[in-house]
């Protein structure tokens, strides 16, 4: 999917399980921005991220701590990999 479509405010991205059911979805960019503003996440914070995507939690930086939860193991695995690239430690449950 082209980036301009992925980041459009009306786009709903979903991931399907092996049996064809929707396993997870991505919040619209405007909603993510609103949540980030309300949460006031800053470097060094401890964050519990439910419905993990990793990006929001990565804002804590290498001095922060993230615990990420999701019903879809593929999502938490991906978040853990990408958070590690930022120097952020993430723990999966």
TrEMBL record:
Leader sequence residues: none
EC number of this enzyme: 2.1.1.77
Enzyme class: transferase
MF terms (GO), sorted A to Z: protein-L-isoaspartate (D-aspartate) O-methyltransferase activity
Domain of life: Bacteria
SUPFAM superfamilies: S-adenosyl-L-methionine-dependent methyltransferases
UniProt keyword list: Methyltransferase, Transferase
Gene Ontology BP, a term: methylation
Name of the protein in question: Protein-L-isoaspartate O-methyltransferase
Species name: Streptomyces formicae
